[in-house]
Amino acid sequence: MSQYRHMVDEAIRHSNTYPNSPIEEFRFIVHVISFHTLVYRSITPFPGILRPNLDLPFFFLTNSNYSALERTLFYDHVPSDRHMELWEINNKVHRKGLELVKPGMRCSDVSRKLNEIYMEHDILQYRVIGYGHSTGVLSYYYGRDWGLEFLEHVDTVLEPGMVITMETHDCGSRRTSGAGGYREHDTLIITETGVENTTASFPIGPEQNIIKN
User: Fold this and answer.
1) If you write DSSP's letter for every residue of 87-101 in order, what string do you get?
2) Backbone angles phi, psi at 96, to 5 degrees
3) Please, are residues 134 and 145 in contact by the beta-carbon 8 Å criterion?
4) Which pLDDT tens digits describe the chain residue by residue (213 residues)?
5) Burial (CB count <10 Å: 0-12, 13-18, 19+), residue 3
């Protein structure tokens, strides 16, 4: 846990210069997507035990605003061709989602078009949540507004100034090769002419995200 505490201390130290004066409110929240293990309560010590395969997405908050970034990573190698196939399918869906997000697009249309790709590969049934949502100022649930979700029944039209996420995922069947979690997540700002991807400097895919020893 000492290395994580060091990361938090470094984040706090750097936050004191943002932008040119101390931040009035600073929090660092960590949680896991599976919810079976949970790292929570800001920077208080985590009582659980760090172990292989523990998923630790970090949520960084300043002045009650948050941004999120998630990437699928493999350590040393990809275990099988099926793992690689599912990973690349999810990358394809994610890239398509980034193309679709723009002013005038309906949330429901984005969701349906992304569903089509998963359906082509017969894995839509392993999608468990929507493709993204509004974000920004922290509220009860990460600043989300239920009227701005990438779901089939949400017909909200995207407008300039909105801050949203694109987060694609599939898990495969537990009883088949390649089972596991594949997830990519970017934070986007809708502009007058398109979209600004604030997390684009962290690329997706096997070219960058197979971590070698």
Assistant:
1) HHHHHHHHHHHHHH-
2) -65, -40
3) yes
4) 444 455 545 555 554 554 444 444 334 444 333 334 444 433 444 455 555 555 555 555 555 566 678 888 888 889 899 999 999 999 999 999 999 999 999 999 999 999 999 999 998 988 888 899 888 665 545 556 778 899 999 999 999 999 899 999 887 767 778 877 888 999 999 999 999 999 899 999 999 988 887
5) exposed
Of residues 75, 120, 93, 109, the one with CA closest to residue 185: 93
Cβ atoms of 188 and 164 within 8 Å: the answer is yes
Closest CA to 131 of 155, 156, 164, 160: 164
Structural contact between residues 131 and 97, judged by C-beta atoms closer than 8 angstroms: yes
Q: For 116, list phi and psi in degrees, rounded to 5.
A: -60, -35
Amino acid, single-letter form, for residue 79: P
How does DSSP assign 111-128, residue by residue? HHHHHHHHHHTT-GGG--
What's the pTM?
0.72
Task: DSSP for 2-53, please give it.
Answer: HHHHHHHHHHHHHHTTSSSS--S-EEEEE--TTSSS---STTSPP-S---TT
- For the four alpha carbons of 151, 33, 2 and 46, in that order, the dihedral sign comes to positive
